[in-house]
């Protein structure tokens, strides 16, 4: 099939490349010519395992092109995917201006029947707006559909090529047939819904996963008070098929480009319909507070943080990505600086995307060792493999004071055996080592 994908961010680029891998002719379009130039030279603007190789392969085999020429791309395609960003407005609502602009340009470029598919996460009713905008700019026949994307950064290629399900939101037969044919090589589990339900499925799925994370983080906080171990609790809970084991890792809260934005947007969508989504508001609040769990521990161990050197390992919102959007590291580092701490940070690949935010106030180090060297405490914010593979006894030998706050529960009891670290993780009070404060409540 002949496809255009508008927007070469995570969703657009990965979807376009994967569709070409399935044998379709794909043109990826972006307004930013620097991005297109880069892609044409075979380099990719984001870090995503496996993506660069797939871009090269499909470009070389002639199925994948990159251009700024939206009109030419639309002319040559049967299906057009809109995969542009929907960033948050200050109110939390999704900003639809890129979507609206894309719809208008598609309308102006139509030269025959096309199916226009939204992959971006958009509020319920947006596809109808897209239909109206296109209609105002063309006399050609077309159909709209919603096919939301569920890929995760870091495993985006795998998630796209092996999805759990594909949701196709349309009430039109041709759109259903074309989109079913396009996605059949990926999975048997294709679910066809009406457009509004498809739009809602994306928000509801992300909000539910965010809820699972905030839930287990609150359970972790209670575990710290009652002396239970949240990893054992999560394992026990997750073994019930109705609950499932995924998204039950306690930590310092979710970040990234989707959960924070989509939870806020769903609260807004509900609010506009006079519905107070109390549960989701609490999920967001719990997530905000969870970032400070490790700060409370740090202060309990070190007291006043003024002039203390705190090493930070991990700036990306999760491993295997250079994305720092809404990463917990922002709030944690801001709070440390406010309290007068000296902050040294290291991330295997995301530091460049983080650097301009603290204008010289943070020292960015070229290695994990340099960041930890003679620090008063080390905080682990992202569970990069490099950190998991570094033994706590080595960490201890690097630190001035042996204080390790593990915000992602990466170390086990065996890893810590033989060390004299003051070790604190999330929701595992029995793993705390070298407690220096008498009152455990201080640690919560
Ligand atoms: C998410 C959804 O998973 C994906 O379906 C959607 O399309 C986009 O948003 P992504 O943001 O890439 O994907 O990352 P994900 O792996 O879901 O993690 C999101 C955040 O939750 C990360 O900050 C991660 O550290 C945190 N998380 C995840 C936890 O704290 N605990 C968990 O158990 C799982």
Automatic annotation (TrEMBL):
Source domain of life: Bacteria
Biological pathway: Nucleotide-sugar biosynthesis; UDP-alpha-D-glucuronate biosynthesis; UDP-alpha-D-glucuronate from UDP-alpha-D-glucose: step 1/1
Keyword NAD: yes
UniProt cross-references to SUPFAM superfamilies, sorted A to Z: 6-phosphogluconate dehydrogenase C-terminal domain-like, NAD(P)-binding Rossmann-fold domains, UDP-glucose/GDP-mannose dehydrogenase C-terminal domain
EC code: 1.1.1.22
Catalytic reactions of this protein: UDP-alpha-D-glucose + 2 NAD(+) + H2O = UDP-alpha-D-glucuronate + 2 NADH + 3 H(+)
Alphabetical keyword list: NAD, Oxidoreductase
Gene3D superfamilies: Cytochrome c1, transmembrane anchor, C-terminal, NAD(P)-binding Rossmann-like Domain
Domain UDP-glucose/GDP-mannose dehydrogenase C-terminal residues, every copy: 311-413
Any one Pfam family match given in the protein's UniProt record, by short name: UDPG_MGDP_dh_C
GO molecular function: UDP-glucose 6-dehydrogenase activity
Family stated for the protein in its record: Belongs to the UDP-glucose/GDP-mannose dehydrogenase family.
Matching PANTHER family: UDP-GLUCOSE 6-DEHYDROGENASE TUAD
Protein name: UDP-glucose 6-dehydrogenase
């Amino acid at each position: 099939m002949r496809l255009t994908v508008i927007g070469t961010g995570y969703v657009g680029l990965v979807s376009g490349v994967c569709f070409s891998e399935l044998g379709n002719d794909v043109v990826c379009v972006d307004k930013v010519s620097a991005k297109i130039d880069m892609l044409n030279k075979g380099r990719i603007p984001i870090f995503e395992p496996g993506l660069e190789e797939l871009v090269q392969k499909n470009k070389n085999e002639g199925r994948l092109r990159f251009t700024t020429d939206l009109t030419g791309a639309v002319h040559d395609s049967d299906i057009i995917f809109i995969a542009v960003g929907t960033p948050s407005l200050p109110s939390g609502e999704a900003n639809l201006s890129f979507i609206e602009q894309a719809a208008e340009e598609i309308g102006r470029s139509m030269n025959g029947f096309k199916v226009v598919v939204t992959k971006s996460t958009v509020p319920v009713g947006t596809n109808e707006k897209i239909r109206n905008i296109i209609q105002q700019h063309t006399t050609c026949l077309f159909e709209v559909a919603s096919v939301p994307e569920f890929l995760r950064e870091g495993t985006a290629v795998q998630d796209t090529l092996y999805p759990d399900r594909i949701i196709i939101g349309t009430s039109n037969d041709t759109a259903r047939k074309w989109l079913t044919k396009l996605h059949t090589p990926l999975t048997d589990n294709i679910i066809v819904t009406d457009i509004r339900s498809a739009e809602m499925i994306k928000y509801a799925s992300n909000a539910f996963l965010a809820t699972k994370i905030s839930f287990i983080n609150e359970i972790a906080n209670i575990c710290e008070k009652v002396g239970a171990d949240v990893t054992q609790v999560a394992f026990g809970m997750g073994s019930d098929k109705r609950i499932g084991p995924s998204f039950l890792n306690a930590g310092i809260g979710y970040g990234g480009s989707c959960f924070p934005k989509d939870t806020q947007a769903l609260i807004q969508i509900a609010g506009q319909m006079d519905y107070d989504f109390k549960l989701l508001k609490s999920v967001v609040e719990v997530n905000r507070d969870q970032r400070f769990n490790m700060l409370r521990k740090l202060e309990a161990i070190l007291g006043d943080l003024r002039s203390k050197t705190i090493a930070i390992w991990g700036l990306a919102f999760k491993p295997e990505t250079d994305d720092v959007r809404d990463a917990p590291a922002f709030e944690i580092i801001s709070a440390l600086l406010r309290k007068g701490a000296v902050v040294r940070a290291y991330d295997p690949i995301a530091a460049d995307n983080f650097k301009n935010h603290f204008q010289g106030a943070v020292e960015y180090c070229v290695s994990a060792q340099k960041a930890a060297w003679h620090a008063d405490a080390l905080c682990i914010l992202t569970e990069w493999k490099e950190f998991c593979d570094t033994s706590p006894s080595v960490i201890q030998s690097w630190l001035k004071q042996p204080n390790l706050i593990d915000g992602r529960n990466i170390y086990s009891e065996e890893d810590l055996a033989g060390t004299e670290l003051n070790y604190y993780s999330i929701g595992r009070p029995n793993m705390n080592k070298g407690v220096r404060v008498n009152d455990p409540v201080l640690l919560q």
